[in-house]
From TrEMBL:
Domain PurM-like C-terminal: 152-301
InterPro entries in the record: HypE, PurM-like_C_dom, PurM-like_C_sf, PurM-like_N, PurM-like_N_sf
Protein's UniProt name: AIR synthase family protein
SUPFAM superfamilies attached to this UniProt entry: PurM C-terminal domain-like, PurM N-terminal domain-like
Annotated source species: Clostridium weizhouense
Amino acid sequence: MEEGKLNFEDLRKIILDNKTIKREEVKVRNDVGEDCSIIDFGECEAIFSTDPITGANKDIGKLAVHINCNDIASSGGEPIGIMVTVLAPISSTLDEINKVMHEIDQEASKIGVEIIGGHTEVTSAVNKMIISVTVIGKTLKGKAVKTAGAEEDDDIIVTKDIGIEGTYILINDYEETIKRELSEEEIILSKSLINRLSVLKEGRIAGEFGVNSMHDITEGGLIGALFEVAMASSKGFKIYNDKIPILDITKKLSNLFKIDPLRLISSGSMLITTKNGKELVEILKENGIKATVIGKICNNGNILVDNNKEIVIEVPKRDEIYNLIPKNK
């Protein structure tokens, strides 16, 4: 099999084939595009999500905290605690494991999240350190936002710039190759992108504003996130290439590695759909968050408009980060 997430059709079949019990307390359950499950606990609802870090080699502790807590933010909730599983190869040292846990603790402390449990193991089953985090969050009953809530004629909003996480991973894992293409200032800026990975602030603002759907843009990039929202909501989308926010550095690296930035892992950017896109964009900007309306939710079809030409977008197979040739390192 190819490296990366399972494609949408295979994943949905596995989920549907293995769902024997459905409890009434579970208000939102697993499906393609739904990164969080929501359980009714009376006045409050608990939100749960889990994800590993597999595509990066550096700062994996920091990445693990933010990509998981971002899922809770995308549901309009507040992350409370995380449970961390560390699978370390037999070549690891105790200092390396402690360094990753220190990263996790430092990032969790910045956003007020407690480490409440987990598991640490050295195993020959992995050839590099793997971190998997389960995050627990909360929201008031009835206030959670689903991926599946997108409605026809919703504005599609993207916060910050796409490709933030992918750019950061590339600059760290392929620095020797990239040094020949980027200036020292551009490399410094790229390495600072790890400080832009959290979407907790925009999630809170959008949740309070009242939106139909939110989804953090992770593996599969913007196109992957759009398909997940569209499939979960039984809708389509039309986006405009010239409106998609992307850093010049990301464009340069995409040209260098011959990858599509629209399909590049993009933690740090939130996809939001709402009937009042212009108003929400202004509110986000007033709070220091760049936001852009890039298109509309449609009843059907998946279209990218480029130079006034409508292009039908194919279902994404895997993130572009996995399409890089190892010799480029």
